[in-house]
Amino acid sequence: MLLKIRENLIDEAVSALLLRNIFRYRNHPPAYLAPTNLPPACFSGCREEFYATNRQLNSEDLRQGQRNVSADWERREFSFESEVRTPFAESNRVLCTHWSKPGHRNKRIILGMDGIVQFRDTWFQTLAEQVLDAGWDVVMMDAPFNHRRTPAGYRPGQLILRGNFYHFLNVGRQSILDLKSLAEFYQRQGMELALVGVSLGGWAVTTVSQLLNHIQFLHAVTPPLEMSWMLREGGAIVRAAWSGLSQDSLDWEQMQFQMRPLSPYHYPLTVKPQQVCFHTARYDRFVSTERIVEYADRVGAGSQEWPRGHIKATCRRDIAVEIGRQIRDRS
Fold it and tell me: Whole-prediction pTM value?
C-alpha cells in the first residue's frame, strides 16, 4: 500500500509540473488546425485510409548529420523530410539517431521512439549499449513536436497534446507515417527489423507493428493503446489536452470514431505473439494498465509488470537494461 501511494504521488506531482512547466509554457494558445487542412481520409474512421501512402523513402532522401565515436559505439544523426506537413518547420523534418559498433554496422536494426517531453536520448543509448554486441544496431526517431523537432519558443512535447482535435489527429498520423516509412526503408535494404518504444513511443511501435509484416520482435513500455479512452482514463496529464480538444464541436461518439485509427487496441498483431512483450506499470496514473493487459491477453502476447508508476517506469533506464538482456537471450 505504501508503495502504491508513493508511486501515485510521484505520477501526480510530475503531472502538475508538466502542466505548469511544459504544456502551459509561455501560455501559448493551443495549436489550431482546421479540418479543411486534413485529407478526407482522416475522417473515415478506416485505418487503411488514414495511413494510406505511396511514399518510398530512399537513401538519397537521408541527410547525414553529426557523428560521434567512443570505444564502444558510434553515434550518427540523420534526417529526412516528413511526408506530413505542418505549420511548424522544425517538425517537418524527421530527426533520427543511429547507434552502431565503431566502424561496423549490423544487418539487424531495432527501431524505436521515446515518450512525450523527451529532452535526451539516454534511454535508447542504454538499450544500444546492451545489444550492439549481440548484433543489433539501434535507431531512435524523434516524434513530431518532441525532442529535437520542437518548434522554437516551445518545449518538447508541448504541441503534441496542446492543440485542437484536428491537430491531435494530424500529429498522430505524422508520427506513424514517419516511423513506418523509416521501417519500410530498412526492410527494403534487407535488414532484419525489430521495434521498441516507450510510452507514446510504445503506442507508435505497436501501431507500426500492426501495419507491417516480418517484424522480428516488439517491446512496448506502458503504451497508450486506446487513444480516445485515454482522454477519460489517463489521469492528471490529459488535462493538458482537454482545453484544446474542446475547441471543436465534436461529440464523444464522433471523437471515438475518428480516433479509432490511432488506437492499436482494436487491431490484431502481425508479429508472432511469442515475440511481443508489453511492459506495464502497476500503479500507472497516465496510461490504463488494464487495457494493455486486456489487449495482451486477447492477442496472446506476453506482458511484464513493474511495481511502479508511469514516471519511474519510463524515466529509469533499468527497463532498457532488462529489454536488452531479453534481446541478447533471444539472439
Answer: 0.96
